[in-house]
Amino acid sequence: MHPWPWAVRLHMAWLLWLAGIAVQLQQAELWPAGVCVAVGAAALAWLRLCPLPQVRLLALAALSWALTGVHALLMPAPMPGALEGRDLDVQARVEAMVQRQDSGIRMRVRIEHATLHGQPVSVPENVFLGWYAASARDEGLAQPLPEVQPGERWRWRVRLKAAHGHLNPGGFDYELWLWEQGVRATGYVRQGRGDPAPLRLGSSAAHPVEWLRQHVRGQILARAGADPAAQQRAGVLAALVTGDQAAIERSDWDVFRATGVAHLMSISGLHVTMLAWLASMALAGLWRRTARWGWRASLHWPAPQVGALGGLAVAGAYALFAGWGVPAQRTVWMLALFTLLRLSARQWPVSVVWAAAAVLVLTLDPWAALQPGFWLSFVAVGVLWASAPLGHAPRREQDTGREQDPVPGHTPAHRLGAWGLARARALVGGLLREQLVLSLALAPLSLLFFGQFSLVGLLANLLAIPWVTLVLTPLALAGVLCSPLWDAASGVLAPLSALLAMFAAWPLASVQLAMPPWPWALLATLGAVLVLMPWPWAWRVWGLVWCLPALCWTPPRPAPGQFELLAADVGQGNAVLVRTATRSLLYDAGPRYSPESDAGHRVLLPLLARTQEPLDRLLLSHRDSDHTGGAPALLAMRPQAQLWSSLEPDHPLWALRPGTRCEAGQHWDWDGVQFELLHPEASAYDRPNKPNALSCVLRITGQGGTALLVGDIEAAQERALLARGLASQGPVDWLLVPHHGSRTSSSEAFVQALRPRIALVQAGYRNRFGHPVAEVAQRYAAQGTRWVETSRCGAALWRSAQADALECTRATRQRYWHHRQPPEPPP
């Protein structure tokens, strides 16, 4: 007999299968197809021929590695660089539910035919397109955008570019999200005066599920009317019914995360299971009635089996309708396995079914392993199963088979009442225990992914889970058949929303800590699981020790006298985080991308949350929106931050946070690091000036290096700075290139006087301004300066203690799905 029990071998097998997938996901470059196929063939041969179980287990890891590589190699080709930014005439079909925004719509389309100047060209089939009303207004062609439905064919003139996103430490990987959906290009619809008008070619039934999702979402939102509060609640209902999480307002997401109920406000496994159970019970009951009607089929198929199959079908249909997210996938596959085992009169341990579902999800979509939803969903179910206390069957009489009387001498009515009270206590106790288990087990993962975990989550979930699962979600789903029920669902949601908002407003509603490295988070998760196991406390107490590294971890900071700069990847805009030993300053707040999105919410607040940076000062160089777009979000979430800027006195940001006007000569010392403002002079505010001319120029000097941040100053301000003695202060080690590398800045005299070691440009990939221009890059190259663009580097980290070194996020986090630009031509 083999020394390893079969259960141990089985769990080692699925762990090694997942390990092979994980190794492939860490590759910066994909191995050639021939290597992946050869490794897969060799692994299959070992599995069949090798008698050693240990080698066969390793062969499983090799096989999953090979299959994941082949899966990636079958992805569509990227966007050809020669066609980026060109006017292409395309015929395309809308593939998915359209996302409507204040500025226009976003849609995923499949391009069926594309031409450039009448000649056919090859572009990626799956593309995300934006169709913006603002571009038509700019051309004097103001008109409302038409209603676009999934399945429709359109003819558009578009401009495309490669699937490129911002890449910041710990930030959302937009390029991975596009990769998972097979999207290799993004773009927008052209509708200028010289462009052909968009033309709807017809409709088709190619995507009925997506069409129905969009139709139902539209009906829910239209039902709410113009009332903002009703519209806000309608967004939650749309997310529960159709899985469109974008319909939920950002403020609502903040409340749901702070109270730990975010998992309930999307299509969760709990909702799918509840719907499957209701459908199973209803179908089984209906099937039993058919036996009384003389239907012969009911005699051959038992009602429990029919109910199980029907419930599984309903669960699968609901999961598909709701977008087929990872939690829904996990639930459907586990339900399918349980149903098949039941039909075949077999029984597997719950842990085996759980592991099989994880293997299946990742085999079909390996990149799901990089999503928080995968880990939160599977860990939650696994912990609930593993930590369940050993149950005890009710004691029965040996000779009659009747349950013993719990209260001897009582009447049947008394016994029934006692039984009901015991069941109620058991239900409440079970719910309380489950929420306590989930709150403790998922806290390390919440800390890793979101930098916070809720302290009111236990109380909030105790109230929200039965309310959302048993009342709100059934009403919302029933509204698909009877729309007035959506009004009832909105009324049910209103008191819950108010209660959750009250919980979120409590001073200690959630704890925010620095996001620990993943090894510490993994150790803490194992420690939390160990604490929850039904084992002796002498073992479980060690789990608390394992949690300490994650809870006590603090990110390293510069030594006193030194500082570091992190130029965030925000696209076309400036945002540079300056950190000293104990203080931090943010120079500019990045752009506003749309009425619904800005760099503050999308990039900078997650970046600050990663290390729990307190942010002592927000310095906005001038009023342009690509420098102030994220400021309202930052000021709202960082109330302690001082505001410094050259904004005009009546600018709305001063109403949010009264602050200090930038003037040359202001200086301060933080932890031995000198900060000095060099521009603008006080007299510059008394005469008319362009906003760029009033850019706050900040010089930072510390041990080992000097940095200069100049905003959008132009040649005239550069000459003024040189005239006031900028060159006499010596060269700088790190320079934020003026005005994103525009030809109106970085004059020859300015570049020669500063002679920076590193010149960094914060500009968007293929931005419409053409920044940076080649001639500006050549001026810096002539001085031996290292030229760095955030569109190629991602977020760039520089430390004064290592003035010659620069760390690019695209280099440290490079994966094969990330966009690679061609090498820069020599200057």
Question: Which descriptors would you attach to this protein?
Answer:
827 residues, alpha+beta, OB fold (Dihydrolipoamide Acetyltransferase, E2P), globular
Summarize the structure.
The chain is α+β, with helices and mostly antiparallel strands and 827 residues long. 41% of the residues are buried.
Structural commentary:
The chain has 827 residues and is of the alpha+beta class. The longest helix has 39 residues, at 412-450. It starts with 5 loop residues before the first helix and ends in a 15-residue tail after the last helix. 46% of the residues lie in helices and 16% in strands. A hairpin with a 2-residue loop joins strand 2 and strand 3 (104-116). Residues 390-410 have low confidence and may be disordered. The protein contains 28 helices and 27 strands. It has five domains: 6-73, no CATH class; 81-206, OB fold (Dihydrolipoamide Acetyltransferase, E2P), CATH 2.40.50; 262-388 and 423-512, no CATH class; 518-552, no CATH class; 564-812, Metallo-beta-lactamase, Chain A, CATH 3.60.15.10. The chain has an eight-stranded mixed sheet. Strands 19-20-21-22-23-24-25 form a seven-stranded mixed sheet. A five-stranded mixed beta barrel has the order 1-3-5-7-6.
